[in-house]
Specification:
This protein is α/β, with parallel strands linked by helices and 688 residues long. The chain is built from 19 helices and 19 strands.
């Protein structure tokens, strides 16, 4: 019923365009409400309710009058005040000390603002303070844009960027609202505050500089180097690894909002606002969350997991192509469903908890079940292993080994390159938190899981598992360090305990890293899938990627350092030294899995050469750690040696110190030789 003039609509359209990242377009909402038909007895364009509220009569206002200041007015007629939902008797309806008329027209360097709202863009700064000069001149004159809640588009609202150079909290960051990277360290302020938990104001402390730049460069058209093995990362866990982050929608919790209005992770969208694609990263989901696609938000369906943030980081990090191979499903515990091989039964309370392969739990004093439909570790088998090696015969959908065993068929354009397993990613723990018997065992099960995965794939794909097989994991997002929830705290403590920096497991130093995800969670709990908030899944995935980059980029912790840390009482500083005086250097003892503190531990051959069978056995440290190839050479006179390239070496199971016993079958009959000597040579690998 109202006759709006075109200039008003033009102004609203301008605000709507410039305020694209605001949570709500408040001025436009005001107009939408005003446009609804309302009673207007005198037909003057002002609804009866408005006239009654401001004059005491339904006919008490003249449309063309401007009442303030005794008729001198504030620049808006009564009809205009009605349209803007302002008070025709108050020159400053919203109390921001800017008069209504000048707000509509724009004041000084300010663009037009909402005269009915003291904070037009909702950034916690009044329109008066946001002078739009582009220069900070104090808290009363911030120089920021009053119709953009994030003037420098760094992901932080202007109101929290207090420009003090001192970080206090997420609501007082001390950063400059006119510069997206206040300390100039290559990471935008929001990313330091929300993702890396580093000081966005300190340009000098290396510890406060994120390991990767932010934002990452937009993906280009490169598909990755074609002369190097494809980097394969095996991702697993339960439902939050499957992923419930919402991709699309107008809510504050979707990826669409996060990248659009909130200006976060800009490498996920191109200049037109369309999703980008990493041509050098492919995602493959098996068991659940099935897909075989190039990595892109638009290719993962309506929801996504940590693979998106993780994959974009790894694609940036590597020259080689990357394959994310995710094998997981929801509602699975490490203490039962994904129980790794080598796990034995144990007693908690009045219950025997089943070990790997057992058909269930049983009361103390009773007998274990002898059959069933589900065994302990069935999901470990189904996720990771060839069916012939399962604890109990069964069939499965395509899993990790099905893809890797048939890699050339699955990915023919990568056939000539082959693959190497570059690392493991784990996010799980929710189901174990409902049973204290499982929670108390979580730490041991996690250690066994890490060791079992490394052993299995190292033995199945010799030479195709990278040095140290890096393993990164994330904690449950709802659990803080000071949690009083006993069962959740047990799981958190277990997850933190395996971090290589904790010192609890020397063999994990430099190759296992735990991401404490509580500061990254945007709300909700693991069992509610963090309310589907895209921010949680992006931030956790990104953090797992940074953790993996940190492990892969480490130059300070090599295998010798890790091995030496297992013998703190021995002087192993010099790899060429001989601490125990047995004639073997310290480094030779490492390579062959011997004890450098015992002179009696000087021979890696555990079973001597058999003249009848041509077999013998020796020990060695995991070759993916030592980066050594082990060759078999023979001689009849100890002078002339010849490599037995046909000798068959069968590695055994790695122990907790990453040492295995290798059974060797030489390729010819020793009985045809009057004398035969064998030697094992360790030769550095030239390539994976």
């Amino acid at each position: 019923n109202l006759d709006f003039d075109q200039s008003v609509f033009d102004t609203v359209a301008m605000w709507d365009t410039n305020n694209a990242i605001t949570d709500e377009i408040r001025f436009a909402t005001t107009f939408a409400a005003a446009m609804a038909p309302q009673p207007d007895a005198d037909g003057d364009g002002m609804p009866d309710a408005f006239e009654l509220a401001h004059s005491g009569s339904t006919t008490g206002l003249e449309p063309g009058d401007d009442l303030e200041y005794g008729g001198a007015g504030d620049g808006l007629t009564n009809l205009q005040e009605c349209k803007f939902d302002t008070d025709p008797n108050d020159p400053d309806s919203d109390g921001d000390t800017l008069e209504d008329g000048p707000e509509v027209a724009g004041v000084g360097s300010r663009p037009p603002t909402n005269p009915a709202e003291a904070d037009t863009d909702g950034d916690a700064l009044s329109d008066l303070a946001e002078t739009n000069t582009g220069v900070w001149d104090g808290a009363a004159d911030t120089g920021t844009n009053p119709i953009s809640p994030d003037t420098d588009e760094d992901g932080l609202r202007d109101g929290v960027e207090t420009n003090t150079d001192t970080f206090v909290s997420e609501t007082d960051t001390g950063t400059d609202p006119h510069h997206p990277d206040s300390d100039g360290d290559g990471a935008v302020d929001w990313y330091e505050v929300a993702a890396t938990i580093t000081d966005p104001n300190d340009p000098n402390d290396p510890a406060e500089k994120p390991a990767i730049p932010y934002p990452l460069p937009d993906p280009d058209s490169s598909t990755g180097a074609n002369d190097k093995p494809v980097k394969v990362y095996i991702l697993s866990g339960q439902s939050n690894m499957v992923g419930f982050g919402k991709v699309s929608g107008p809510g504050d919790d979707t990826l669409e909002t996060m990248t659009g209005r909130q200006k976060r992770f800009p490498d996920l969208i191109d200049g037109s606002g369309a999703w980008t694609t990493r041509q050098d990263v492919r995602y493959r989901g098996v068991i659940s969350d099935f897909a075989k696609v190039q990595l892109s938000p638009g290719a993962l369906g309506s929801t996504f997991g940590p693979e998106l943030g993780f994959g974009y980081v790894m694609g940036w990090h590597h020259d080689e192509p990357v394959l994310l191979l995710k094998s997981c499903t929801g509602n699975r515990s490490i203490g039962w469903d994904i129980l790794p091989p080598g796990s034995v039964s144990y007693v908690y309370g009045d219950t025997n908890y089943g070990g790997y392969g057992d058909w269930g739990n049983w009361p103390v004093g009773g007998s274990p079940p002898t059959s069933g439909t589900w065994h302990a570790g069935k999901e470990f088998d189904r996720f990771f292993m060839d069916e012939s090696e399962w604890a109990h015969p069964d069939t499965a959908d395509i899993n990790v080994v099905d893809v890797l065993d048939n890699f050339a068929t699955e990915y023919p354009d990568w056939a000539s390159q082959g693959f190497e397993i570059a690392g493991f990613v784990w996010w799980q723990g929710d189901k174990d938190r409902y049973d204290m018997g499982l929670a108390t065992r979580y730490r041991q099960n996690l250690v066994t899981l890490i060791t079992s995965l490394r052993n299995y794939y190292t033995n199945r794909y010799p030479g195709k598992v990278v040095n140290n097989a890096p393993f990164v994991l994330a904690t449950l997002g709802q659990t803080p360090l000071d949690s009083t929830n006993e069962v959740e705290r047990a799981i958190l403590d277990a997850q933190l305990a395996v971090d290589g920096d904790s010192g609890n497991y020397p063999q994990f130093a430099g190759n296992v890293k735990t991401v404490y995800s509580h500061p990254l969670s945007q709300g909700g709990a693991s069992n509610s899938h963090y309310n589907g908030h895209a921010g949680t899944y992006m931030l956790v995935g990104d953090a797992l990627g940074r953790a993996m980059v940190e492990l892969e980029s480490s130059t300070t912790t090599d295998d010798y350092t890790q091995w030496a840390s297992m013998y703190p009482a021995a002087d192993l500083a010099d790899p060429n030294g001989d601490h125990d005086g047995d004639g073997l250097s310290n480094d030779e003892e490492r390579i062959f899995g011997l004890d450098p503190a015992s002179g009696a531990s000087a021979n890696p051959v555990t079973v001597a050469l058999s003249a009848s069978s041509g077999t013998f056995s020796y020990t060695r440290r995991d070759d993916s750690l030592t980066q050594m190839n082990f060759e078999i050479w023979t001689s009849t006179n100890l002078v002339d040696w010849e490599e037995d390239a046909g000798a068959v070496q069968t590695p055994g199971t790695l122990d907790s110190d990453s040492v295995e016993t290798v059974a060797v079958q030489i390729s010819f009959s020793p009985l045809t030789q009057p004398k035969l000597f064998v030697r094992v040579r360790a030769v550095p690998k030239t390539s994976m």
